[in-house]
Design a protein that fits this description.
By secondary structure, the protein is mainly α. Among the domains are: 81 residues, no CATH class; 60 residues, no CATH class. It has ten helices and no strands. One of its GO terms (cellular component) is Ino80 complex.
Length: 227
């Protein structure tokens, strides 16, 4: 009995200690956690296996076998070559004379459609190709530099021939339409016209060039006294 009383006293001490823990907000167990319960004498405890019983032995995992003489790993596929920029192709098709014609014609007309219809280049460029070339000359420093270097190497006679083919601006044609259709004017008439309006006409204009363009205007009845 004395031993039983002592055992009950130990249980009271343990319960008192748990009550102290439950009062601590940090150390107190949560309501979902159950306190450990000592097994009663009626409960059976696990019996250790006897020496005659065999314990399960974990099988050792064999090391991986060395790779055999199989086929070598496939090499990575070659990267697709990027498409070359259109600069080399344009530089091959567009001659320095074409660039000079394009620049002067655009400065005269400010209209790429008129340039496409009125300028005769070394190749039959489409309107889109003319637009792309013009924007490349404006915004691509590499193409612009190469084009300028090539145009500087043109012979002066070739430059003069190119400048003689530059399209007429609207202001130039307005002055030419004022020349009457009859009597037929002479070269002196167009020479005087050049001298009176040097700021309007392109610097490379000659009296003969003005006369030829005036005849073209008269052929299509575009002179002021014909309308």
């Amino acid at each position: 009995l004395g031993t039983g009383r002592g055992h009950r006293g130990d249980v009271r001490d343990v319960r008192g200690g748990l009550g102290t823990l439950q009062g601590d907000p940090v150390l107190a167990p949560s309501p979902s956690q159950s306190l450990p319960v000592h097994p009663s004498p009626s409960q059976s405890l696990p019996v250790p296996p006897s020496p005659s019983q065999s314990l399960p032995v974990s099988r050792a995992v064999p090391p991986p076998a060395p790779p055999g003489p199989g086929p070598p790993p496939a090499l990575p596929k070659r990267l697709k070559k990027s498409k070359p920029s259109p600069a080399p192709r344009d530089l091959g098709r567009w001659k320095p004379a074409d660039d000079l014609l394009l620049i002067n014609a655009v400065l005269q007309t400010n209209d790429l459609t008129s340039v496409h219809l009125g300028v005769k280049f070394s190749c039959r460029f489409t309107l889109r190709e003319i637009q792309e070339r013009w924007y490349s000359l404006l915004y691509d420093p590499v193409i612009c530099k190469l084009s300028c270097q090539a145009m500087r190497q043109l012979h002066p006679e070739a430059v003069a021939a190119i400048q003689s083919k530059v399209l007429f601006s609207k202001a130039e044609e307005q002055l030419l339409t004022r020349v009457p259709s009859s009597p037929v004017p002479s070269l002196d008439t167009f020479q005087e016209l050049l001298q009176r309006h040097p700021a309007v006409f392109y610097p490379a204009r000659t009296p003969k060039a003005l006369q030829l363009h005036w005849q073209l205007l008269r052929q299509y009845h575009l002179l002021q006294d014909q309308t």
